[in-house]
Amino acid sequence: MKKAFKLLGVLVVSLFGINAVNAKVIDMTEDMTSAEIGAITEDTTINGNGHTITGTFSIRTSGIDFVLNNVNIDANASDETEVIAIDIRAIGASLTLNDVTISNYTKAGIYAEQFASIVVDGSVFDGSRTVDIGEGSGSEATLVKRSAAGIDINIGNSASEDFAIEKIEIVNSEFRNVLASESNTTGGGIKVKIKDKTHLTSMADVVIKNNVFKDNVRDLVIGTDSPKGSTETTRLDTGDFNIKLFGNSEMKVVNNSSSEVEEVDRTEVINSDYLVTLNYAQGINSVTTEDETGMVFDVNSENFSLSDSLSIISANDDYDKLVLDYGTYSITINKEDILENSQDTVTDLSLNISDETEVAELKEFAKDGNIFISSVESGLLPASKIAINVVLEGYAGKELNLYYYNPETKKLEFVSKVNVDDAGNASITLEHYSDYVLSLSNLIEEEAPVIDEPVIENPSTNDNVMLYTITGVVSLIGIACSVVYFKKKLHN
Hints:
By secondary structure, this protein is mainly beta.
């Protein structure tokens, strides 16, 4: 009876809202065991409020969401046991951890085979309490700690039907003391591999950003030397996905999908102060371009974030500008021009540059080689000005006119001259996004000049009468004076 009251005190079942059916929220007021919480067979959110859950969780129900907030998970591992703190093997299921600490596990803090989404934010995976579980068998006979990992993503290992990986995002977290002293060829802070690609229909990029790796034998292990599957899943296939690294502490990365060579020959230390993209199967190991133009970001990456790129350049003292590479054109933003409230501005700087336009009022200008520049989003830019860098081969060495289309007046307004160098390179400065036209011609009709002429004011009618009266009086006085003069002259 006491246990029943304890559960009633901490279990709140959501009765209202869109997800009311088959959903529950648990607000913890004291430490609990996973057995007291019960099996996770429906959408479940646990708000730990800083308390501890002792035990483990297994997610086997497809399509459910399991969310853990501000809680400690003690997996309670003991000698000679293989313990997983959170085990997810359910198609379409999602796992989200916010401010969670997982410790005292042996195999993994999180182990996953088929799922839709895993998001880990602000969490800690601590291997300092991992115990020895004895010697392995077969190929693992010499191992003492088997497959210990903070997060072990073993995609498709036991899948029997199709599934898709929609998101894997591990950010702002810490991985420490994972296999700090024992030898294990597969252990690491994070392990990601495609064990069996037979039923995997799509695979999202793996984002590992702003994490701290401390005192681990390996920080990131990619792929495996033991693929599995009814189709020919090769060792190289096990590492055939994109990994995006940025802002992490220095990492020891092992490529287990490579050919059978010594581990030292397939291990590299990666500094991800800049964006690093890895896909060992495709031969991709690229670092954010660093040259005299500034830091260059590939915006075509699925995980590109404009706000992140602006933050990176703002916080980096070595570079004074940011270059966004869109393939057919690029955009340059000077650090000094970035606005403080850039997060409240347009979030997509993509442009359509073409000789055609969707703006009805501009279609009359779709001739004579005119070029239309239109933005995906219109509004305030994240910087006081940006430069569009584009190659205009047919206009090499020429000067173009840039016009802004004002949607209120439905007229073109001249903005500036654009010079194209002899190689066809042009830089177009914009202060806000909308629709623009580039042309060799003057597209604005000149209005006839207004000539300022002197204005002659006609006197009023009353003024005319008075003028005539005065003139008449003066004339009569003159005549009278003349008569008097001549009379005097005759008498003399």
